[in-house]
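ARCHIVE CARD
SHELF: 3
SLOT: left
DATA:
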Amino acid sequence: MKRTTAALLPLLWLALSAHAEVQERLQEQYYDLQVASGESLSRAINQASPIRQNGQIYHAYTRWQVQWNFWWREQRDGRCQIDLTRTRLSATITLPRLGGGDAQQRQRFEQYLGALREHELGHYRIGQAAAAEIDAALLATPEYPSCTELQQQANRRANAVLQRHLEHERRYDRETGHGHSQGARLTE
């Protein structure tokens, strides 16, 4: 009997911890860019980029979204507590893809693309932190006198976490100059 119980404990632990796991999906998509030998790489990317916001042209962009669900258990007296959560992070990174160009342009582009991708992965990591913190906040939501109140408070907590991370993302772009301080800069 002890052996069976000991063998089941790791499985029980896995089952209990699985309810807190964040599911993640990251995709990369590309827009094509053609550059002629001797042409300005920066100008060519600016012309090809579909990423335009508030009158600005960007060479890359990361869009992430956190979705959460939770299930609760209602007691006979109406008190309610969260039993299970499911939090999902979906993200898409949009980057340029070079066609044409001479060897020097392709080399400069590859260096630039590496720094650009690393900057965009920083945005993704902010999304990962948001998803993990939202899931933890939902699981830590205390019991409430009613399920309606629990639902309102849990969503309020999750949205507050989301807003903090959206501000963190804006600050990240300001502090890095949208990746310039990380090497995502073309000088021509």
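SLOT: right
DATA:
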Amino acid sequence: MSTPTIDQAARVFVDPRAYADEPRLHAALTQLRAHRPVSRVDQRPYRPFWAITRHADITAIERDNRLWINAPRPLLAPAYADDMQRSLVDSGMGLRTLIHMDDPQHQKMRAVISEWFRPKAMRSLQERIDELAQRYVEKMAQRGPECDFVQEIAVNYPLYVIMSLLGLPESDFPRMLRLTQELFGGDDEEYRRGLTAEEQLPVLLDFFGYFGALTAARRAQPTHDLASTIANATIDGAPLSDVDTASYYVIIATAGHDTTSAAISGGMRALIEHPDQRGRLRAEPTLMPSAVEEIIRWVTPVKEFMRTATADTQVHGVPIAAGESVYLSYVSANRDESVFAEPFVFDVGRDPNRHLAFGHGVHFCVGAALARMEISSFFHALLPRLEAIELAGEPQLASTTFVGGLKHLPIRYRLRP
């Protein structure tokens, strides 16, 4: 593939199809890191922004959450979608999740669920997650010798974990999966419900309708689950609004499984395409913690977040005015040659591994420990039984500008009983 020009390279950020074409994407990001690590992008239907591609610049921005705030533009969206979101928020109906908030409100809202994701809570979940991992490896064995690993295994295992934490009935899991794919898959022809913001709005309204009923039920009769914790939470002595409660459920129920699904399926592909690393990990299971970090770096399910400057400043010597927005390219940061030795080599023993797939600073992913545990448990369960595995067709990546990964991974395999 020919090297893109700088202007061509910068356009990958506003092209959802670029994330489904990894050679093109990484060629562009490599070009930008080397020659224009802070690039202005002005392409309709998006408002202008500055794309940040180097690891050091992204971490510096994320550390300074007073200078760089999430509101009013926490992620890349077309101008009409930004306008609709703001209108909905102003009317009391818009999505207001942790990624939309800044301190002190962000810190207070994050504290609502923090106990569920502390090390002690994670240790108590370990046995249950190990059981679920074994269950889905057994499903592979029963489904073999071929399956679409994404659709039959990878989307369902983490979905089951997070839905169980919330205390939702198993009969509702398919609905949550469909709504999540529609919410995050608005740029993908296979997943999206409609082409415009108006056509996609019913997805959000469906979420709000479902979780509004759940909130009422858990307030009337609390149970020992995460849904009850959210429904009955208070901040400064007042209960959460219906919108804030529903928004909390939406981010937990979607990001809580979709990103982990992407990591597991991308990790499976990496282990298939790098049999030496698969053999190394199988022979040295003590490498699993570093292998999990490498899988997460390699896949980087969350492609970006955005921040807006509260004052005139500079990034990498480039002046950025108050009110202008920056796009934090985690995919680029996780291949930064100045941070990672041989960044395009998949290495299950990579150490150190200072990837930014979970973000950095006060907005570091609250569910990171859970995601790591799920990935580790699954491959711990799978690898000892795996006798052979290969691709049975072409992997397909979702078109996206925000969250995503593989949507199809046909594999052929043999597992021992």
